[in-house]
């Protein structure tokens, strides 16, 4: 079973389609029931039979717990794609929107990783955390977005030390610009025509997650080019 968060849109939705095409059993999650249903509707009936969807706001601990309580056995992989953007010069940023940014990116990652470590640290589970190239370098007019993504990177790197010797693995993913709904929901009006499609990024990520007996890709930067 593969769990994909943020599956109602963008990268998570594209990953859902790629893994469903391989006949994988999936638990997919997002906040919007309608958007999750629309993603499921793109799958064949046979693929749909293997997909369970669950609405969850991952910034709420009870929702996170309920999501993983759906599983009767540990998942093989969890891909945490949920997140959102918010941009602009800091003096023009709205405190409520900053709170939302922190909830969607940082609180959600803390709660998801807390739940996963508590349930599965002694199981062979690959936990993939999608951050951004904004977690790797500062960017003007992206200060609060960089701040939350850098914080998630700190979370992942610290938990790796706590999980030393455990079969659970944390895989850090840093994508560059993708042409998804992320930009319209973030309020940033930019031309995304040269950006990767979600489908392209999903394909590269899925390929990178293929591990061998003695190795796996632990950190992945997906640049647009
Ligand atoms: N697009 C880019 O250029 C880009 C670049 C680098 C990194 N990223 C990162 O990549 C990830 C995926 O982005 P995307 O482009 O696929 O964005 P997207 O199309 O806007 O999708 C975001 C997904 O996250 C979900 N989500 C947001 N907040 C949530 C919450 N509190 N609880 C549960 N689900 C929540 C959304 O659910 P609902 O829609 O159902 O509310 C949606 O499924 C994000 O972490 C983003 O920061 C994006």
TrEMBL record:
Gene3D superfamilies hit by this protein: NAD(P)-binding Rossmann-like Domain
InterPro entries noted in UniProt: KR_dom, NAD(P)-bd_dom_sf, SDR_fam
Name of one Pfam family that matches: adh_short
Residue ranges of every copy of the Ketoreductase domain listed in the record: 2-182
Superkingdom as given in the UniProt entry: Bacteria
Similarity comment text for this entry: Belongs to the short-chain dehydrogenases/reductases (SDR) family.
Protein name from the UniProt record: Short-chain dehydrogenase
Protein source organism: Shewanella inventionis
